Please model this.
Amino acid sequence: MPKNQDTAFFGHPAGLSTLFFTEMWERFSFYGLRAILVLFMTASLATGGLGFDVERTGAIYGTYAASAYLMSMPGGWIADKVLGLRKTVFWGGVLIMLGQAALAMPNSGTFLVPGLILIALGTGMLKPNISALVGTLYTPEDTRRDAGFSIYYMGINLGAFLSPLICGWLAQGTGFQHFLASVGINPALSWHFGFGVGSVGMAIGLIQYVVTGHRLGNNGIPVYGSPTPELLSAARKKLLLSVGAIVAVVAIIGVLAHNGTIVLTATSIGRWMDYLLITVVVAFFAWLFLAGDWTPDERKRLVVITVLFLGACVFWAAFEQAASTLTLFAQRQTENTIFGISYPASWLQSVNSAFIIILAPVFGWIWLKMGPRDPSSPAKFSLALFFLGAGFGVMILAAIAASSGQKVSPMFLIITYLCHTIGELCLSPVGLSAMTRLAPTRVVGLMMGVWFLATSVGNKIAGSAAGLYESLSLPKLFGAVTVTALFFCVVMALLIRPIKNMLARA
Model:
């Protein structure tokens, strides 16, 4: 290791600590919302929920989750061309904080959509760009890169572990509801305290980000290429025109809906979201290969990014069912007690993050210890899809056991989350690292947006799967997911050698 390397944070650059804790609090906010949103929408009006059916809930959740990651593409563009990474991350956090505060309002049936829109926009600005900032801490030759992303990923999951426990208890815990009643507050409002603590968490993350920002040095401050004032002004005009066009389209749709020309429902909006995602994916990759001015080396790397993108889409489509089908299974078919004491179903969403916290250092050590023998990204993706399929294989057994009407042990979900955690550690931090390593420098923010576009597609499919929860038998639903994951596991394994050979010639 060179003597001049920054090793202040567990052998890694000091700036990693700033991004570690910023992302920890952002994920605290995000996963707290994720743990209770579906349960809140399906809960009865009498218990403070919205009383939505499963199909409507799945459409709303899938559209929101897909939008949050779809916005990573314009969020990456804003960082690359207008604000730079550092400022884009900050303002994204502000929008998230405001969105969570909107959901904390007592009449959140009114504030549900505005709040989710703010969170989606903020997540799109913060999520890809803070990951890109991590990449700027390392040179392309620095062998600590994958290990650094694994440590960063542990910070993500520390927030994701704590938030379902805290937000879930505030939203659903009988003890907290009894406390509210004792001080004269309607216990049905407990859901809004669950949302509100997410806003507080994001505020803490922003304060930490500003106070310790000096640890990042100059990383992320300049917009790529140090554009002239004229170029920067042109980029900002494009941004304003884009925002204006979006506002105009929304206004036209609103007028047509008000006049009865079109009928807007959660299901129809979800269907239009499907069309939008397909259009964005096809259009983006068509532009990427047909219109981009790339060198031969960059073009080969973009082919690898495309392969990893497709593998990630499949992975997240199954994995993100933790917040949809698996949460419904935890609520309806699982015996949520330990030593005779009941706990909120949302608490089971902390299991994955607990395993991440335990195993992430192990995986970081393994990748670092293997050095030049470290498996390629496609090889790790193949392993990820295998463990994903194995986890849903466990859920087939759980669904069969629950088909008699008896609630099953939470061990089924715990074993499933263990398998999914191993898969996640083989894919998510590795994918983040691969994007920063493979992406052309001038569009690194945009390429991080592409990575999260895969998550967007996956979340939309996962939300749609929730709509099938009551119309398709659970063994068939989980079986279809298992077969799909294992099929793409084999496909990815077959591509390992061709990709390795292609990059060797780059």
About this structure: Residues 378 and 496 are 6 Å apart (CA to CA). DSSP finds 18 helices and two strands in the chain.
